[in-house]
Write a structure and sequence with these properties.
The protein is mainly beta. It has four helices and 30 strands. The two termini are about 30 Å apart.
Length: about 475
């Protein structure tokens, strides 16, 4: 416990943008076949360092078969909320779930070069105290650490709906389910909130049988994956409104609210429109009557391709779908980054007007039937996937694995893991030739967290001034 608030906590997004730049990134290392234990790689991201762009430390856990995926901090700028009373916590621990095992690791990264496992929460405790399985998104927030799950109870995770549970932010004890009234919510994926305005938004992917062994084409073509977003009264823990984006908008994934808490809007990425293979971004907002609305504001077209160049799953379509699998919003709420995992493109949109986004930049690397090399001439397998933006908005990092079984379906000939970075500066949006992390043999890479916080971690409680 500190005697002063952690210096990486910031009252507003604007103040966070002025903070010192990151020296380290923490990135998932996952063994796709479970033959090795998963881990967290500590990557040197200081361009003045001799080990810039290298993995300088690894935390490899004892168990195998966890499949690390998403993870987050024990505490962030949300601790400065006048309602939480957590101002003296430290941003010290990473909460790292195994999406396949439901085991949760607490990793102490106070000294990044000596990062180590602090505590392990076994899956039986998750099942017994929550009725949920397959933990996914982590957010540090009011009352504790919030964890979304993709599965309910039972062996295949379909015994009851998935949801969110809360952990104690100091002892990491699991407290229990978040929901008092979930309404029609029966699938889950991501969630985020606006703390001063006291609302939360959640999204939907699919149930475990729909993703654990790969995409189920029959379910996708019959529109059985998630296509709704849910709005919640955060304190009352009650679903207050559900918006169906349309059943053809399959897999509503990442939720990115504006960082300035005076704004009542945000974005949600949709993987694929089953009527035309487009990827899409919806803008959601609260209208003058207090009702939530959503409108499709970005569409990304598929690219025609010869069947012989496509994986079997796509040959009948003769096209490469964009496959919008991650998005991230800069702290000034100006740029939305959209990962097009299928096309092999990272798009940068100016969303200063959130109802009228403008494509500001586009980079090509990897991609189905394209396989564009990194500017340094080395391969980038799969396509741009998990994206993370530095607090000052000048560096955009991403990795390339989506989920082990889905990687193998969409990119059956690829193997490996890379992490790259693009600069966003006076020369525009461009890949950094000198930053290229090739993960150890047998490992793929997924989510990234930046030392001191990033653009998909912290929730701010005070307006930009």
């Amino acid at each position: 416990m500190n005697l002063r608030p952690d210096p990486t906590f910031h009252a507003s997004a604007k103040l966070a943008m002025q903070a010192p730049v990151e020296n380290y990134a923490f990135t998932v290392m996952l063994s796709p076949d479970g033959s090795q234990s998963d881990g967290i790689a500590v990557v040197d991201v200081n361009p003045k360092s001799k080990s810039y762009g290298e993995i300088v430390h690894k935390v490899i856990v004892d168990y195998k078969g966890d499949e690390f995926h998403h993870f987050g901090w024990n505490a962030c700028s949300s601790s400065l909320s006048p309602l939480t009373g957590h101002a003296f916590l430290e941003r010290r621990y990473l909460i790292v779930p195994g999406i396949r095992s439901s085991r949760i690791y607490i990793i102490d990264v106070k000294d990044p070069l000596k990062a180590k496992v602090h505590k392990v929460i076994e899956p039986e405790e998750v099942f017994a105290k929550t009725g949920y399985s397959r933990p996914h998104t982590i957010h540090c927030g009011p009352e504790g650490i919030y964890v979304s799950t993709l599965g309910g109870g039972g062996k295949d995770g379909t015994d009851g709906p998935p949801g969110i549970f809360i952990m104690d932010c100091e002892t990491f004890e699991i407290i229990g389910q978040y929901e008092m009234d979930r309404g029609p919510q029966d699938k889950h994926y991501d969630f985020w909130w606006n703390l001063p305005q006291d609302y939360m938004v959640s999204s939907e992917w699919g149930l475990p049988p729909q993703f654990e062994n790969g995409v189920v084409a029959e379910d996708l073509l019959s529109n059985k994956y998630g296509h709704s977003i849910h709005f919640w009264d955060l304190r009352k823990r009650k679903n207050i409104q559900t918006i169906d984006l349309g059943e053809n908008h399959q897999m509503a994934l990442e939720i990115r609210p504006a960082h300035d808490p005076t704004k009542s809007y945000g974005f949600c990425g949709v993987v694929v429109d089953t009527t035309n293979l487009q990827g899409a971004i919806f803008t959601w907002w609260r209208d003058d009557d207090g009702k939530w609305q959503a409108k499709k504001t970005i569409t990304i077209d598929p690219r025609p391709e010869k069947p012989e160049n496509l994986p079997p799953l796509l040959q009948g379509f003769e096209a490469v779908p964009p496959l919008v699998t991650d998005i991230d919003l800069s702290l000034d709420d100006k740029y939305l980054y959209v990962a097009c995992w299928g096309l092999g493109e990272m798009h940068q949109y100016d969303v200063s007007d959130p109802m009228n986004p403008v494509l500001a930049g586009k980079l090509e690397v990897g991609g189905i039937a394209r396989g564009t090399n990194h500017p340094n001439g080395k391969p980038f397998v799969y396509g741009p996937q998990m994206v993370e933006v530095s607090r000052d908005g000048k560096r955009v990092y991403w990795t390339n694995s989506l989920y082990s079984t889905w990687d193998d379906q969409f990119y059956p000939d690829d193997e490996g893991g890379q992490m790259v970075m693009a600069n966003n500066d006076e020369n525009g949006f461009h890949l950094d030739k000198d930053f290229y992390v090739d993960f150890p043999k047998g490992y793929r890479s997924h989510q990234i967290r930046l030392e001191g916080g990033d653009c998909s971690t912290d929730s701010f409680c005070y307006p930009n001034v």
